Fold each of these.
Amino acid sequence: MATLAETARALVSNRRGILAADESIGTMSSRLESVGVPPTDENRRVYRELIVTTPELSDSVSGIILADDTLRQRLSDGRSFPAALANLGILAGIKVDTGAKPLAGAPDEKVTEGLDGLRERVKEYVSLGATFAKWRAVFSIGSELPSERSVRANVHALARYAGLCQEGGLVPIVEPEVLMDGAHSLAECQQVTRAVLRSLFDELALMQVDLDGMILKPNMVVAGKDCPEQPAVEEAAQTTVDTLRDTVPPSVPGIAFLSGGQSPELATRHLGAMQNCGELPWELTYSFGRALVGPALETWRGDDGNWEAAQRALSVRAVANAAAR
Ligand code: 13P
């Protein structure tokens, strides 16, 4: 059996990246409805089957993060999703948090839940074929936000999650997402991202998480969606790399970015530009959700006749991101 460090390295090496297909039932239902597909269990299953059976996906995708429901579903040929991925040489991951919930006394901030019973769930996920896991915490930028208590509460949960996963044999993907919502500048995003990552790595050290057996999944440092001054691709890329150099220890094997609502093309261009920012101690790759699968969902729209075109749309993004690396 591979060690945690070997699995972590496998997830980020050979120019491959991770595909996030772990939308909760609620989020997946709205995405299906947005393209006119009824949000049933079966339609979620079919859509996930479209993704994992995309030809040559394993050339650019090392791992796919699944949701709990998908991990228990089967492809039309009867194989479970983890078994089908294993046949392809793609690692199966599992989202283990139970969502970002309002933080007590802080109506504009959230804390991610899911620690209760996690040790037992990790055991079950390993038995179902998962080799890595994901937990996402979110931080909003605003006047006085994020608050110290939201940062502390979320990094504490991330570090305890990471420890429980490593104890049970799963590589934790640790995802602190500073959201793009708002009109904040690139500099403000950098300041908040730096503070969150510093606090996160202090907490990971306190909880004795092995950094060589985890993957960091941060936001890229970009200006808020509504900021009138959008930085050039090279500037955002350089600022992101500078922020990571300031905060992420070299023993972390890989950093796999979320796309966070950037267009698929822009996320790929940022990833490409970062590879030109000098020697880096970690692999820099992608763990995109929307920026990988968005075009495929738009193309499919629940119509069997669009199946192959939708898989081609996913392939185009996957190949472009691997090339950007
Ligand atoms: P996006 O790339 O769509 O931000 O999703 C990545 C992810 O896994 C969010 O938790």
Amino acid sequence: MTEKQRPAPSFPAIRMRRNRKVDWSRRLVAENSLSVNDLLWPIFLTEGNGVLEPVSTMPGVHRRSVDEAVRAAEEAAALDIPVIALFPFTPTGKRDATGSLATDPDNLVCRATRAIKAAVPNIGILCDVALDPYTSHGHDGLLAGDVILNDETLEALVAQALVQVEAGCDIIAPSDMMDGRVAAIRAALEAAGHTNTQIMAYAAKYASAFYGPFRDAIGSSGALKGDKRTYQMDPANGDEALREVALDIAEGADMVMVKPGLPYLDIVSRVKAEFGMPTFAYQVSGEYSMIAGAIERGWFDRDRVILESLMAFKRAGADGVLTYFALDAARLLKA
Ligand code: PBG
């Protein structure tokens, strides 16, 4: 027998399987847990009444009119999901070069926010700050030639954040990746007396192909000219994410987020370890659709893969996950 083949001297005194032998023991030694308190549910909005329109690239996900969004919020609140995140579908005809609908206090997001706040006061409302649902070119900022203008965009983002907060939004989530936007929004919120509005910064947001289905859901996919690589991060980089997060914290973010999720769990883990901030991850549309598509074909055990994918975020150190599976997961966790 060679050295390598010889059993470890402690075997069988050490048997890793002892702790795994029965359910109560597995539960006893579990290092992490997943609960409904970890879930943030993104939903898509559309105009109309009684509208529940399937998003073709996201099996099981719908765009909802405001009344249906209120029903969804009621369902989420009944399951104790802490936060619902609102994303508007905007048809081509309502988009323009500057995304002016973003700052209209009567836009779809603001109307839905008011309606949900009135009907379901006990759920947190998160609103994205970025111009892409409203621009004709599909970019998150103002475009001059082929350049996304940073400082000029900040003004629009601040105005967008303010109309959303005035409509009742609890958590402002800048997803645009312009430099200095958290500071600009924080200063404007303080100046306007909105001292308790939380900011969850999309701090480390990558230029990712996994957003494909989302862009379809909000009506941006046909619109987008080029890509977002001059403002979103290069998937090759990890250290840079820590610099992004440090800046957003210094600028006044209350919570930070990493996006996408599962392919970027190394970043989630580093961010949590480095800063100890409330740290969130976004299981984005493409991740959802990969899993949901495989479930639909019968390739995955639905309940198990949903919970396993979400537990992975907890193990990496996330305090919560934005996930299109939130309602399904909450039902499973409550059962
Ligand atoms: C807007 C925004 C995007 C997502 C959230 N906010 C898309 C993008 O940056 O192109 C993606 C969410 C998802 O894919 O589920 N800036």
Amino acid sequence: MSVVERQEWDVVVVGAGGAGLRAAIEARERGARTAVICKSLFGKAHTVMAEGGIAAAMGNANERDDWTVHFRDTLRGGKFLNQWRMAELHAKEAPDRVWELETWGALFDRTKDGRISQRNFGGHEYPRLAHVGDRTGLELIRTLQQRIVALQQEDHRRTGAYESRLKVFQECTVTRVLKDGSRVCGVFAYERESGRFFVLEAPAVVIATGGIGKSFKVTSNSWEYTGDGHALALLAGAPLLNMEFVQFHPTGMVWPPSVKGILVTESVRGDGGVLRNSDGERFMFDYVPDVFKEKYAESEAEADRWYDDPDRNRRPPELLPRDEVARAINSEVKAGRGSPHGGVFLDVSTRMPAETVKRRLPSMYHQFKELADVDITAEAMEVGPTCHYVMGGVAVDSDTAAARGVPGLYAAGEVAGGMHGSNRLGGNSLSDLLVFGRRAGWHAAEYALGGERPRVAEEDVGSAAAEALRPFSAEAGAGAGAGAAGAADRAGGPPENPYALHQELQQTMNDLVGIIRREAEMEQALEKLAELRVRARRAGVEGHRQFNPGWHLALDLRNMLLVSECVARAALERTESRGGHTREDHAAMDRRWRNVNLLCRLTDPTDGLAATDPVRGQITLDRETTDPVRPDLLALFEQEELAKYLADEELYR
Ligand code: FAD
């Protein structure tokens, strides 16, 4: 094998979305030479798709808002399974992170008196989302990118080289986090265009790779969301936390089929849009669960008054947390009251003037006009649930974002678990990226600059390269260098097409581990995943390493299969319904599960596609009891409300 190029850095950040860029800025500002590596083009990360806004209790639209209200909303939304210290830091620090963006050049929409405008979103008591129309993610990434360029210009003035202390490797994919003993020592990656392998050596690696939606058939997520960071952490020995919690956003497009799943932002409801069934009923009034009854309007008149007078009226039930709305839509469709294409109706056309729709929701207007030939200023949209976000992720320390059990590994953004509990509130991701991206960069830099540099072993580089080349050595490929493992594979069956395997995986997860889950179906899913894992070892590709999307997908399959098994196994284990995890056979939330985390670990980290026993699979599950919530934080809630969530022993402690 040819020599693999190596470069030395202090901190490597995998991912250039909001979390990755914020981490990189922080690490570089704290003196660490920092490399950012991303699968897509710089500036094209999934974060650019974020529409509605960044949740931060700045109190611009309602001065009663502050971090304690935001904290309470976040815990209610997550059904009290949130890592409470993360939720506390998030609520306290989000306003500073938004203001900081403004000092770096972000142009938010304004209130009449010139402050940053904040809009309503599901589960947030007050208007809280700082936004730029419905293109907030784009502005966030543009601003962070601009900040990176500014830092590079500063470095050029000091060192004569723009990329001496902060460099972006775009269109490069990391396939392994490398270790020296128990410590992280770098990453192994390939350049998508040339297929060239290279190693970035560093004592600290921040994983900021986003989510897992591409394992599901109907999803709002971009092509990058193949769960790479989740799998990289597992393979490096870090556990994943509460992977059963996958958010199905209530409003994705349902028609035409080619765009099924594309998001219809929650701002549509936040700005006054309502949901109706085929009988024309605003059905959400029938779906307000007991835990939320006191906070939501009982009549359409009260709900409509709330938009102008939120202090004396209760919120419309269309603004319940996402899990509630998604389940309600699912029930209406199942009961035969759906729209012609299997969704329900979301209407702004009768709620606000056409010009207001176009001004406040420009992307939605164009999205429906161009993709579905629907004019949303004149007719209702058809919408239904779509896989949107994963609450589960790398188990991290709340303050430092350090991944559990692997010194030098950090995780931030959607790939990290804990912050959102069992269900994320809209807008809380963009603020999460900024708050914990900064913390990850800060602590990764401190760690990297504080100790001895670890060493990357040549044999580990060789193994990572061999693993990456496996798709060329299976039956469909040249067969060269297949070795004993390749021979065993060939004996095991015919070559497999990575695209066909991906489709089968997506169908399996959608049908058997989707929005409503049943024990027998999840068992069936685990059997299917075991079969797919064996077949994925034979996923062969033709051609060479120069821009070869089939090869890229064959490598991504390992990650999607690992992550899917985590989701299915944890979902089978948790015998209750909570947030983004709904069991038909255990339909209620069970207080005994309130303080239980499920941790997934990989049994054989040397081989992500090991042909292990199909019943036991690759993943082992452990239960752990969560830390008790700090008393001063519990005191922010009424005792009566706590009694709905907390186990008896927690309440009386
Ligand atoms: P990303 O922005 O996805 O970045 C991940 C990065 O990792 C990318 O650069 C990718 O190329 C890179 N990467 C992945 N794998 C690898 C690998 N193996 N090697 C190298 N690089 C890799 N949240 C809100 O709070 N408010 C909103 O209004 C909102 N709107 C949304 C609208 C849509 C349509 C969607 C889909 C989501 C929305 N969200 C919103 C959620 C939010 O956008 C995401 O959760 C968030 O952007 C994730 O950011 P991140 O930095 O964690 O990851």
